[in-house]
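Task 17 of the worksheet. Students: predict the tertiary structure of the chain below and write it out as structure tokens. Keep your answer in the requested format; marks are given for formatting as well as content.
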Amino acid sequence: KATVSVLYCDGHTVMGHPAFPCDDVEDENLVIDELKKEIENLKENTIQQSWVIQAQREEIDKLKAPEDPDGATGWLMVFCAFTLQFTVLGSINSYSVFIKNLKDDEELGKPNNWQVSLIYSIANGLTPVVGLIAGKCCDKYGPKPVLSTAAVTLGAGFFVSSYCHTYVELIFSFGIFLGISAGCTIAPGLSVVGQWFDKKRSLAFGLVYAGSGAGTTAVPLLANYLIERDGDGAWRGPFRIIALLSVPALMSALLLKRRLPYVCPLEDPDSHLKLKQIITSPTVITLFVVGLLFTYGFFSLVIYIPQYAEAMGTDKPYLDRHPVSDSAATWLLSIFGISQTVGNIVWGDFSHRWGNSRMFKWAHFVCGAMMISWPFCSTYISQAIFAGSIGFFVAGCITCYPAVAADHFAGPQLGTILSIIYLGFGSGSLVGPPLTGAIIDMTGGSYLIASFVTSAAFIGAMVLVQVFVPHSATVMARIPALLDEGSSTVADYESSVGALDRAISEAGGATESSCLIPKE
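Model answer:
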């Protein structure tokens, strides 16, 4: 039509410009030449647009899931994440088996209880801090480089530590390397597994968490065998053998993959809370302190369960008790790990049936009550029963903790809030073992006062949840019903939202919860 318009010179527009009357052939030729140029430009633009469309189609194809969720590939991812937690966290927790030999090492200066515990605490204290960075890197660059870093630093930490000749060198080689390894393992592994499951996600997470308990069961037994093989006081040779566990960890890291590629989310300033709001939130502060108190007790147990058994018949306060061999003391830590593995799965079902907050409080209360009985376990059998029982209830604290946080913070910044809350775990693990060791040293090797302080930490965490984080499960359970109470009119919808606000207000968190749970 444009060509016809130009050739007939009827005054219509051509390519957005008015066509002028053609008085001679020369003017007409000029117009036709311009039109040909416009047509060539149009062809070129069309080709470029076709390329863009093809590229967009390829991106859309990439966004399609390679297969349905809850499939075989998902369970392979579970196995790989389980293996990573088994090797990395199991190796770190085997450190308690080496404490006696490290304390007797003259080259290290014969460090005391709190000094040896500080090395382990630095590793655990760095874990959530590194996890903040590792999680973002995993989202942006994929799981392989982050989880491979976890495997490499695991091997490097144990191997380099075996050549340390001073206490300070051991702090840097073991504490920092293993802290990086654990931080790059936990959150990235769980985030990958979560993408592959819809209906069975809770079971998948439980099995991944079980890797830590299974590793705490098996790797300390391996460490004890290597110590007995190399002779009393050995720790350098066993460290080098444990460093080889980085090989299966690396193989698992290279197999892990995302179900969907990373897509940078669109930022909506109205849908996000400011960092100041998060940090000053009463519930965030409470859960931070709860995490600090819990890990104070948890990591003190991991370090000192075998040490307390080894003190029987040898240390001054317990000379009248029957001695416990080093291998038998190591088995106590393995019993603790077995019961924790079972508990990670069982408590997930408990919290689903009876509420996250309720189970969270009971788990902390029982842990606190049981800690009082610890120094009175005078026989090996009683100590084994204690290790198995408290390992089961400790698993309840670990499993219910993120669920309780999710009950209160169902908004778009749950990941950020959990990362801040988990920093409490790092604080507790950094303070707990050294302070417990210092109390034991100051009381002449007695575990009585140390166990009471640990018991107070568990019970204090339970009281904080009871007083400052009430009724979370009740409120969250009522939200769907409240929002479904007729929304055929605007008035009905506003009535439902008003009922929701009243329910939240009754739970003692109107301002905080209403801004964290979008009314949409």
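Marker's comment: The radius of gyration is 31 Å. Confidence is low (pLDDT under 50) at residues 1-16, 262-271, 472-494, 506-520.
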